[in-house]
Structure formats: structure tokens, C-alpha cells
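Sharing a chain and its predicted structure for anyone who wants a worked example. Both blocks are below, sequence first, C-alpha cells second.
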Amino acid sequence: MTWTAQQKQTVLACYLGWTLDAFDFFLMVFILKDIAKDFGTDIEAVSWATMLTLAARPLGALIFGRLADRYGRKPVLMANIVLYSVLGFVSAFSPNLMVLLMLRTLFGVAMGGEWGVGSSLTMESIPPKSRGLVSGLLQAGYPSGYLLATLAFGQLFTHIGWRGMFMLSLLPALLTIYIRLNVPESPTWEAEKEKAKPGLLATFQSQWRLSVYAIVLMMCFNFFAHGTQDMYPTFLRVQHKFDPHTVQAIGLWLNIGAIAGGLTVGWLSERIGRRNAISLSALFALPIIPLWAFSHTPLQLAAGAFFMQVAVQGAWGVIPAYLNEISPSAVRATFPGLVYQLGNLLASINSPMQAHMSKTNGGNYGLSMAIVAGTVAIAIAILIRFGRERRGEAMHESAS
């Protein structure tokens, strides 16, 4: 199927928006140890910054999603990107842990809006047959951002320190220039903007079963992602005592696996269905856990990280298409992002929880990661079987 130049530019812009959002988020996970040392506290205390970022994301999904449903996807996406970039940059000037926690909470609000607005703009702009592959590409933006943060840590950290790492957060704001010049508004939003629409509360009340299901599913998905990613650099630096360059090398393989998994399983979901693709990918994580969490050499850990993220981000690669397809069309910029981020809120305890579990088990981060990953992989494989399959349906028919 032939794509227009504008469709290609829209996909590229939304992919980069999520990539750079993730880049700003993951800068934090590499420097927990260094912030703790500078502020005279421990890693568990600093890890609350990650938890607060995740916990604040539903508020951003609600605010920016509603604005995008009312005023259009494009201007709200631009505002989102500028806001998370500025807040990430300002984090560099935190004088103490309390200020940093406050800034990372506000950063979470801005971060929480980007995914829902960007994914709705993308899925409403492309041909239906392309949703699976583009879903994988869009979600691959998350590990792409992690990869960029990995490279930044490995190459720049020893020169600029943790405050300099946060200053890199300002770079994504440049993307808004490209969006302003090249990306059109969603054709679905343009066609329906004058129509009377039910309110958000009325929509959620009429679709409460779907809403509860989607939130619980996304809680498990967020434990799956953050439970295998957020404490992983600390696992490598503290438990295995690897230097920044070794951490970078392993992190690169982790993110290459994530990108490959997202693209492959997203594409596969067009052929075997969204639910089947998610189930297979989640279950693939189980036999990988021993290699991923309990190996000792950098080579073994790199292999485990690669295959674990093939599974994790493979399952995630289907989510942008899946949530947009089951979403009520009147609130599509709000519903996918809000249920995603409410699930994130429920899973936001992951980093402090894993840090505490590790501390009580003699610093064994691998064990705490393995428990979380194995539990939620099974839960996802079961839960997704109860969901709807709306692959290929026109967006205006979704959840009708």
C-alpha cells in the first residue's frame, strides 16, 4: 500500500517524540548511584524519583489527552515535547533531593501526555494494514530512547557528570520545529472535530469493563517493562561492579533486542492477531530469565538482556495498535494514554520495591528482577486472552 509523504513524516515525528521522551526518562536510571552519593543518601531514596515520574504520568495523559481531543493532536504534541524537555533540563540544577523529586514529578506529567497523543495521531493517519508494523516502530521509540541514553552515559558521563546528563534533556525540543513544518493534523480528528462528543466520564462509564480491563493489563505491561529495565543499570553497576563502558555495551545489546522485538512482533501481529502475538512474546521471556538475571560474565548478561527485551518490547510493540483499536473514537487521544498511564501508576512502585527487595536479599538485584518479570509475563499471557481483537477495523468503528 502506497504511503503519502505526509504519512511518512507523521510516523517519523511521533516515533522521534516517544524516542526522545524515553531518552529524557532513562537518563535518570543510569545516575541513581551518583545522585545518591552527591546528596548523601542511598539508591532506594533516589529511586523514588523514578516512581514519582511514573506515578504522575496519568495526570499528563488526562490533561494533554483531553486537550488533544478538543484542539487537535498536532499542537498538543508540540507543547508536550517542549514541556518535558524543559523540565528534564531544569532537573540538572536541583540543589537537593526534595527539589529533584518535585521536578521529576512534573516531568512525569509532561511525559505522560506524549504517548497517547502521538499514538493517536499516528494510528489515525496511516493505512489500517500498516498498523501492526507501525505499532512496533512507534513502541520501538522507547528502547531507542533507552539506547540513546545508554550511549550518552557511556560516552559523556565521565566528562559532564549527572547534572550534565540532565542538561541533555533540552535537545528534544528541537523536534517541534520539524513537526510544525512537516506534520499535518490527524484526518480522523479533522473529520470529527465538529461532531458532538460524549464527555470523558460518560464514555468511561459506558465502557467501564473495557476500561478496568485495559488498566489492569497495562499495569502488568508496565511492571514487565520497568521491572526489566529501570534497575538494570544499577544491577550491572552495583551488583556486578561493571564500569560505565561495560554497562554501555550491555545496554546497547539490551536495546537492540528491544527494537528488534518490537518491530518483529508488531509486524507479526498483522498475521496472527494482536492477542496471539502478545501471548507468545510474553511467554518467550520465561526461559530467558536464568540467563538474564543470574549470569555472571558480560557476554552472558548481554545475551540475556538482548533476548529478554526481544520478549518484553515484542509484547509492547503490539500495544499502540491494540489500545487505539479498542478505544472509543471520541476520546482516542485520551483513552489509550490514560489507561496506559493509570496502569503505569499502579506499577510505579516497581523501582523502590525492587531496590528494597534487593537490599533485604544482600544486594541481589537479579533475584528481585526475576521475580517481577516471571510473574507479570504469565499474567500478561493470561489476561490478553480476555481482550478484544479489532485488528484492521476502521478507527471510527472501534469500541462502537
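Comments welcome. Residues 36 and 46 are 6 Å apart (CA to CA).
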